[in-house]
Write a structure and sequence with these properties.
Its main location: membrane. It is found in: Cell membrane. Keywords: Membrane, Transmembrane, Transmembrane helix, Transport. This is ABC transporter permease subunit. Belongs to the binding-protein-dependent transport system permease family. The protein contains twelve helices and two strands. The radius of gyration is 25 Å and the shape is flat. Strands 1-2 form a two-stranded antiparallel ribbon. The two termini are about 30 Å apart. The protein folds into two domains: about 35 residues; about 240 residues, MetI-like fold. The model has no long low-confidence stretch (mean pLDDT about 80). With about 300 residues, the chain is mainly α. Helix 1 packs antiparallel against helix 12 and helix 3 packs across helix 7. Strand 1 and strand 2 form a beta hairpin.
């Protein structure tokens, strides 16, 4: 009885060893490229840039000047606002669309292809579409004037180039809702609807079924998708730069401005901004994941 278990354990160890050996070349390349870049970024943010004639490592003055500036905290608040609002809206819409996908409705086959289209379109194209559609001289403003809702396209409410960021949020939501939908829909297909049907037979309301049955089942998909899109939103540059309202800018735009300043030594300040973004995002995502792990243990699911 003991011998087969020992043999099986040895075989399992060999398989794991072979898997790691096969992954070693890829892991080595990733470690050198991303790990090396991360180490160099941290060193530059601490004053190591001999190619600029600066080598005061370790020097925390760049972080001190950055974090001691009120504009940094304004930019951080704006960055988190865009990231959180976009993530929440995309999540809510993605959940409802995924729940609709597991049910039958007319033209479902066509819809299963249409909702994935934004996934294949780059963010830059989405930004261009936002300018064409949502600008004061865009298609929606012109149609509103044509049908008499407003007197002139210039009277259309300002959506782009404001710190409310509706244009930035619209681009993120348009692009990321299909991703959330696809992730949660895959989870729903895996768990099936038997548990929901059993709860319905036992007299549970739709609200109870959603919060007590469906939500715990799709929670892994929710967590994984929100981790990815929030991490992207907090570090995204193009949409806030083109569609944002100017000062205060988001932190990625602030970093870009430092990197493009005529004073090359300000690139170290820009690198301190980049490291700050990574540090803040890591703290938020780690806290979010730790909270989820605690919840999983509380309900007895590991």
């Amino acid at each position: 009885m003991t011998q087969p278990n020992t043999t099986e354990l040895a075989r399992h160890r060999r398989e794991r060893m072979m898997m790691w050996l096969q992954l070693t070349p890829v892991l080595l390349v990733l470690s050198v490229l991303f790990g090396g870049a991360l180490i160099l970024a941290v060193m530059q943010s601490l004053g190591f840039a001999p190619w600029f004639g600066v080598n005061t490592f370790p020097d925390f003055s760049y972080f001190g000047a950055l974090w001691g500036s009120w504009s940094f905290w304004q930019s951080l608040g704006l960055t988190l606002y865009y990231a959180i609002v976009s993530t929440v809206i995309a999540l809510v819409m993605g959940i409802f669309l995924a729940l609709a996908m597991v049910r039958m409705f007319p033209c479902k086959t066509l819809y299963k292809y249409l909702y994935k289209l934004p996934l294949m379109i780059p963010y830059t194209v989405g930004i261009a579409l936002a300018v064409i559609m949502l600008g004061n001289g865009g298609m929606i403003s012109r149609l509103s004037a044509f049908f008499g809702f407003i007197g002139d396209p210039s009277e259309f409410p300002q959506i782009l180039k404001t710190h409310y960021g509706w244009g930035v949020i619209a681009v993120y939501v348009w692009k990321q809702t299909p991703f959330v939908t696809l992730t949660i829909y895959a989870v729903l297909l895996g768990v099936g609807r038997e548990t929901e049907e059993a709860a319905s037979i036992l007299g549970a309301s739709k609200r109870q079924i959603f919060f007590q049955v469906t939500m715990p089942q799709i929670l892994p998909g929710i967590v994984s998708s929100t981790l990815i899109i929030f991490a992207f939103n907090i570090g995204a540059f193009e949409a806030p730069f083109i569609l944002g309202g100017g000062f205060p800018d988001t932190l990625p735009v602030v970093a870009w401005r430092y990197f493009n300043d005529a004073d090359y030594t300000l690139q170290l300040q820009g690198m301190a901004t980049v490291v700050s973004i990574a540090l803040i995002a890591s703290i938020i995502l780690y806290s979010y994941l730790a909270f989820y792990r605690r919840y999983e243990r509380r309900i007895g699911r590991n």
